[in-house]
What does this fold into?
Amino acid sequence: MKLKVLVADKFPDKYIQQMKDLDLEVIYNPKLGEKDLPEAAKDVDIVVVRSTIVNEEAINYSKKLNLIIRAGSGVNNINIAAANKKGIYVTNCPGMNAVAVAELAIGLMISLDRFIPDNVSDFNKGVWNKDKYSKGKGLKGKTLGLIGVGNIGKEVAKRANAFEMNVYGKDITRIEGVQIKDFSEMDQLLPLCDIVTIHLPATPQTKGLFNKQMFSYMKDGAYLVNTSRHDVVVEDDLLEAIKEKNIRYACDVFKGEPEGKSGEVSSKLQNNPNIYVTHHIGASTEQAQDAVAEETINIIKKFVHSGVIEHWVNRAKITDAHYQLVVKHYDKPGVLASVLDVIRSGQINIEEIENIIFEGGIAACCTMKLQSAATADMLKQISENANVISVSHVEI
Ligand code: 3PG
It folds into this structure.
């Protein structure tokens, strides 16, 4: 039986065809939204989404959902906690739309500096105002603060360098696979910046980062650009900072953003002369959508053909494993079962296990990460199996 893939968002036709060519049954319905997804995803194996919300109901209601692919970067539209409980893989396409988002961020900086949207709007109203709009400061020589120096931040930095700006970055520190959001030095960075641009994921640590306190560190008249996620900025505090410090803000994301591709919109950020808002189009260039679609096909291919989960975001970063047991053995039926029997007899939980075969298919190596230590007696029992070559057990 063919695997069923539901593409519940806009996706280039050429790549829908490539999916079909992988011998998959493909259902393409770009109009689906959060409410219809539970029914639509009920019988599929793979769901591909952009910003369509995959909520707990969609996950729990699904009978055989195995993989959710976010055809983009941020995974905050997917209920990962629910996917974790059902063992459903969640993956994304990191970096594939980074250039497009960086291009928009630079565009917004120039828009703020040269009042481009107001120029256009006045012209269309029949108003000529060269005097009013001739007050751009220019980007050259200005200090830019990148908040988040991941795939997108790096692309912004390259472009800002080409504009001869002084670029500072506040990165997210990664320690042993864990992301530590350390924003402790913002009081030193923000006062230096003429322009600040945010490139952070939506996480509990980044939520509300740009609050009253952060705005108090910013220069009067500084520009703030946000092409990341709306909840990194406290909109009420932003509106106050605009009044008090004449901060100018341009963003691609805002609270209450509609899920669909067209319709009505209502936001606190409307009709403020210091604010420009675009329609969450950061990733929506042909170049970026092709790159994301190609990566999506690549993820599906690997998943279907070799079981490899590329860009797996909900794999545990830290497990409860404290010991590693490596058993080299002859690749024969029942050997591993006998090893596992010994481990079971000790009531030890195996957190991770991998069995790899040496070339020629005679010997194999099984690596297990154990929650608690195997006893000397258990190790002896495992070694006594005539098909076991060697056993090593270390604390990790
Ligand atoms: C992302 O996280 O990749 C961007 O926010 C793009 O979202 P979109 O695919 O819904 O345009």
